[in-house]
């Protein structure tokens, strides 16, 4: 910035010297004038000097604006945006830490309480001991899932670029469905697949399968026994779409915009009962971004929900 200011001052001085030289060359010193005869404005060179100095001033002002004022203004706006983003990031970080602390504290408190009760003599009763150990096992598994989801989310966020595999969508989805089918069958939930075998996407196959695992597992958790889940992969208007639809409890419209936030739960009591950590859909959102895809949800209370992962016709574009 200082160099540009010095350059402008030097240009202005050089222009002034050039104008003075021009005035000296134009002014007619040899023409005789009578006593009291006024010197015309043209003859005196004042008009020329005024025009030259006006042009010099205009040029200096324009250069000052484009070389100093405008860059400084843009830089200032950029700094303001950075400060706002930093504040938002800090707020998100604080909220995340608070939520993680709360989510970790709940099962730990429960585990600690039951262990203390067992140590105080409850372990002598076989029935009580068995029931308490079952609860401790459930809370430990919940704690393990939460820690695993936090680590997965952190790993995804810290890796800006994913592996660039060519993913056979039908094969990847079928593999994921087979992994989850025993869980679905235990609740008499039928998983129906309708998969176009020609669809491929670019990215990490492991991350893609993880995204589908979370979506299908989420559908199983919030579906009633004896219901159905559809997993589809198809083309629609030149876009590749993968969707998961269930016949579950559904989600009210006012919750749709916040579904992919960390730890956001529509029904906290049911979510905890189902074993959810509150991070599944947030992980889905981040993986979709890595794969260059967008997300959409359609849901009605009492009817069910359908989640769409939408890929552009061209690769690596976020919808």
How many H/I helices? 8
Low-confidence stretches: 34-42, 313-319
Task: Find the count of extended strands (DSSP E, 2+ residues).
Answer: 7
**Amount of helix:** 55-70%
| Strand coverage percent | 5-15%
Structural class: alpha+beta
The chain-level mean pLDDT equals 77
Alpha-carbon distance between the two ends = 40 Å
Biggest sheet: strands, sense, closure?
5 strands, mixed
Strand numbers in spatial order across the main sheet? 2-4-5-7-6
- H/E element order: HHHHEHEEHEEHHEE
Rounded Rg = 36 Å
Silhouette: elongated
Can you give a write-up of this model?
With 319 residues, the chain is α+β, with helices and mostly antiparallel strands. Helices cover 59% and strands 15% of the residues. The protein is built from eight helices and seven strands. It has helices spanning 2-26, 41-44, 46-119, 126-158, 169-186, 205-221, 268-274, 280-290, and strands spanning 165-168, 190-195, 200-203, 228-236, 239-246, 293-300, 304-311. A five-stranded mixed β-sheet has the order 2-4-5-7-6, covered by helices on one side. A two-stranded antiparallel ribbon has the order 1-3. The two termini are 40 Å apart. Mean pLDDT is 77; it is low at 34-42 and 313-319.
